[in-house]
Amino acid sequence: MSVRDENIIEVEGLTKAFGDFKAVNEISFVVKRGEIFGFLGANGAGKTTAMKMLIGISTPTSGKAKVAGFDVFTSAEDIKKNIGYMSQKFALYDDLTVRENITFFGGIYGLKRQQIKNKSNQLIEELGLEDVKNQLVGSLPLGWKQKISFSVAMLHEPKIVFLDEPTGGVDPITRRQFWEMIYKAADEGTTIFVTTHYMDEAEYCNRVSIMVNGKIEALDTPQKLKEQFKADNMNDVFLKLARG
Fold it and tell me: Which residues does the UniProt record annotate as the domain ABC transporter (predicted)?
C-alpha cells in the first residue's frame, strides 16, 4: 500500500447529541493522506460540530473516529500535536508583529529556538513579507493575515491541517493564491480538511462531503457528484440536496 492510500482520518457512526437533538448524526467517512477533503454544509448543518470532535476539543456522544492514528475519545492531546488548525475567526495576534506571531506560535507548537528562527526566515521569504515583518499584524489586509495564519498552522509540519472557512471575506485574487498554498501543502503530503461556503471552491477538492441536518447526504469527487445529481456545478448539487 502506498503512503497516499493510507487512511489519515477514519470516522464511523460519529454522533454528537445535545439532549434529544443530534447535531451530528452517525456520520462515517475516511480521508486519505495528502487528500484535499471538502466538508460542506449550510450554517447549522453540523460541520463545525463535527470538526470540533475531530480536532480533539469536543468529545463525541458515540461512534468511533481516529485522526492521524489517534482515537478521539482517548488521545485528544496527541491529535492536537499532529494537526494544524485555522479558522476565519481565529487568526493571529493583532498587537504582535508578523515575526513575533510566528515566534509565539512556534513556541506553542513546541519548536526549538533555532527551528523557530529558521522557520520564521523561511516563511517570511516565501510569502514576500520582508518589508512588513516588523509591522503589527493588525495593520495588514485580511488576505495577508489569512495567508500568514495558514503558514503558521503549518509551522510544526502537521500531518493534517483543518481549515474552517479559511477564505471568508477575502478578494478573489487572494482566494486563488490561498488555494495555491493549499495545493502545495497537499502535494508535499499534508492532508487538508476544509470547510467552505463557496461552492466554486468545492471544485478544487479531491472529494467533497455534503452535510444536511447533521447527516452526510453525499460524498464523492466533485465530478461524480455533478453527474449523480445531473448538475452543471457544485452549487446546483448543494441546492438539490438542501431541498431534499
Answer: 9-238
User: Which pLDDT belongs to residue 7?
Assistant: 96
Cα–Cα distance between 85 and 77 in angstroms, integer? 14
The full set of domain ranges for the chain reads 3-82+159-243, 91-157
Q: Report pLDDT digits (tens) over 144-176.
A: 898 999 999 999 999 999 999 888 888 888 889
Residue 216 is placed in which grid cell? 452526510
**Which residues on adjacent β-strands are paired with residue 164?**
87, 195
Look up residue 56 and give its three cell numbers: 480533539
Was domain 3-82+159-243 assigned CATH 3.30.110.40? no
- Give which of 16, 18, 34 is closest to 73, Cα–Cα: 16
Task: Indicate the DSSP class of residue 227.
Answer: H
Task: Map residue 180 onto helix, strand or coil.
Answer: helix
DSSP state, residue 136: B
Q: How confident is the model at residue 210 (pLDDT cuts 50, 70, 90)?
A: very high
Strand partners, 185: none
